[in-house]
Task: structure prediction
Amino acid sequence: MSTIRAKILGTGSALPTKVLSNKDFEHMVDTTDEWIVTRTGIRERRIAEPEEATSDYVARACERALEAAGVPASEVEMILCATVTPDMMFPATANLVQDAIGAKNAASFDLSAACSGFLYGMSLGASLIESGRYRYVLVAAGDLLSRITDYEDRSTCVLFGDGAGAVLLGPATPGETAGLLSFSLGSDGSGGKYLQMPGGGSRRPATHESVDERLHFLKMQGSETFKFAVNAMVDSTEKVLGQLGMTNEDIDLLVPHQANIRIIDAASRRFGLRSEQVAVTIHKYGNTSASSIPIALDEAVREGRAKAGDLVVLVGFGGGLTWGSVAIRL
Ligand code: UT7
Result:
């Protein structure tokens, strides 16, 4: 076991200002505000302007995390960006962010683990610091899901939004209690069919036919994903706590992936958590993929709901299928 422990030095997030409300959807597809609120908990989501791209938001979230930490961009050695909506196939969004924020001494790359991407990034970023080779690592997640949402498909279009979040990780001082204590990650590629964007990759590159078949949009089998989600959240949280000899009673704040309020409520009930112990942003931002966890974490920190000394569990799941959890002492 390494004697170096990684901790969060600062958090940041960035969201578009444009709001798309449930009422707006009533004019776009056959749906109602009431259906969306009762089935998902979503009231509105944020949508980026046409000329913007994912890296614009990720860069802003990273700058805010650095500002909160009081660390200059030039000291960052690695930038990890989780995204399924990169600015383009390559270069990586993390490379574009490295330039945008002036992190001239940083290596940078993207990681693809859909909605679990931030948890994968946190685990990897912390491991790099624990190895002793890296000091400051920016872990970011950003997605403009509006770019791959089919606004003619009512079963998916009401769910998704745009945004980005980031944390700066660095080494804890020896002896201090704060730090990333443990993580647990998992995947099951046999469930890839439940949540995917089939077009644009090497199997179905962009053609007139792929566009006509609407393959460049996200496709989801909602109820299959829902069933997997609740178990993945509960099992992963129990696993990460079990590694620490802890139980649900040790949780001060749960920061779950924001996919559906019913999934969040089901998991919270299983752990006997009160509403103030669960970070919820889904009503105002919808599902922003991997960025939903760092956005909710940043808000909880800035609003004082996540305080020094708290045990915070981040937990999520998503396309892949993938899932994961991270336990942090703030
Ligand atoms: O972050 C990635 C992971 N994603 C998720 O975790 C999403 C997990 N899944 C879900 O959140 C839910 O399955 C949904 C919110 C997507 C759907 O809720 P549901 O309660 O599972 O609804 P359903 O798919 O079983 O559909 C029930 C009915 C259907 O009509 P019929 O067949 O019963 O007549 C749908 O056509 O609701 C209909 N429906 C809608 N009605 C009004 C589906 N979307 C809409 C809509 N407005 N937007």
User: Anything to note?
Assistant: The chain has a mean pLDDT of 97.
